[in-house]
Amino acid sequence: MQNIKVKADYCLNCKTKPCSVKGCPLNNDIPNFINAIKQEQYEKAYEILTRTTVLSSICGRICPHYKQCMGSCIRGIKGESVSIGDLEAFVGDLAIENNYSIKKRNINSKKIAIIGGGPAGLTAAAFLARTGNKVTIYEKYDYLGGLLVHGIPEFRLSQEIIKKSIDKILELGIDVKYNQELGRNLDLKELEKEYDNIILAFGANVSSKINIEGENLKGVYGANELIEYNNHPNYEGKTIVVNGGGNVAMDAARTIKRLGAKKVIVVYRRAREQMPAEQKEIEDAINEGIEFLFLNKIVKIIGNEVVKKVELLKTELIQKQGESRLIPVEIANSNYFMDVDYVVMAIGSHPADFIKNIGVELDERGYIKIDKNGLTSNPKIFAIGDLAGNISTVAWAAKSGREVANQIDLT
User: Tens digit of pLDDT for each residue in 88-128?
Assistant: First the structure.
């Protein structure tokens, strides 16, 4: 507790709140909740946080803080940033431990169905239930949490924290129907007859491909599917290449190393400074023995029926007109080969093909098309999270869920 007080006292309580306004996707009132900690008013700190988030214990642990709130902290200009994530997680954990309640206002009574119980769906459910709406979550698995459970390894986020955080949300009176999947035993048209509104929140977790020769060989895997279904091959004594530079690539590489791989190599076509992964995740991966090949690009996967090697080439970064980010360009005649056993693609994700048949319009990228309020082409149906093309982090998913919940309350 004393250590937390020291971390809280380090905050300058800036009036401009760059950590909240610029840094936090959810716009949590960071200086004020930290100020409440300074005064040891912990329940007040929780109340301040729950105005904007219901995932404090989770976001406080896994958000890319240095790319968000802590990266905008005034104290970080000349020294260390305030430990905002630690302080948020502390308040969230204390709320669970002491059973602090989320305040409710019974101002609405709509019936809302939410399909998908990940961070976007859970947040939407919480904000709708706290204003008096009757909310039912339809979840395809026999548990809630979505990618919080099957997309983030235990070594980054414990299952106990996830379960306790979800239980806190369900205390608001949310109903859940498990093992319900669109296209299998759940029909959107039938739900439309029963509910005032439907929110699609089932995510976009199909691993993207880079469309190179050999990508369909046995031994080439999508990182998202490996992590979600936990259906790994035998890595013992083998060399695995992970292609990508985000947190999913880090999670996949670190998981594979833990499962006995002899060597895990992350290939990224840009420089380390440009990696979208959180720096802490990169450092942890390096400390665990993961190797990195920056400014390298896989151009071919070679094998008969199974992977035998990859062909790579080196890249260099140049500034192209009209581009704010340095662009990787292939260096001619820099090709070389590497013997590998498996290749794991971690270069992004997209929605499953079945969404083409659910009766809502898609955009040119294959995501569900929404307007500024999250409404789809069907006037009863909203879409949130990465399913609608939002930024694929927990905080951004939660924000989309909260904003759609607020929009439903306004209509």
Answer: 999 999 999 999 999 898 888 999 999 999 999 999 999 99
| Distances, alpha carbon 261 to alpha carbons 240, 265, 337, 338, in Å | 7, 10, 20, 16
263-268 and 291-294 strand pairing = parallel
**Considering its fold, how many domains does the chain have in total?**
3
C-beta neighbour count of 227 within 10 angstroms: 23
Do 197 and 229 have their domain in common? no
Residues 215 and 193 in one domain: no
- Asked if 264 and 256 touch (Cβ cutoff 8 Å), the reply is yes
The letter for the amino acid at 245 is G
Rg of the chain in Å (alpha carbons): 22
The residues pairing with 303 across neighbouring beta strands, listed in sequence order, are: 307
297 contacts 210 by C-beta, under 8 angstroms: no
CA angle centred on 157, ends 162 and 250, rounded to 5°: 140
CA distance 339 to 379: 53
Contact (Cβ atoms closer than 8 angstroms) between residue 117 and residue 110: no
Phi first, then psi, for residue 36 (nearest 5°) are: -65, -35
> Cα(335)–Cα(223) distance, rounded to whole angstroms?
25
Q: Quick check: helix, strand or coil at residue 368?
A: strand
pLDDT at residue 322, as a whole number:
77
- Long-range contacts at 40-45 (CB < 8 A, ≥ 24 apart): 40/5, 42/91, 42/94, 42/98, 42/100, 43/95, 43/98, 43/100, 45/91
Q: Which of 76, 98, 120 is the last residue of a domain?
A: 98
pLDDT in tens, 151-202: 999 999 999 999 999 999 999 999 999 999 998 999 999 999 999 999 999 9
Q: Extract the tokens encoding 122.
A: 């859970």
State which residues form the domain around 69: 2-98
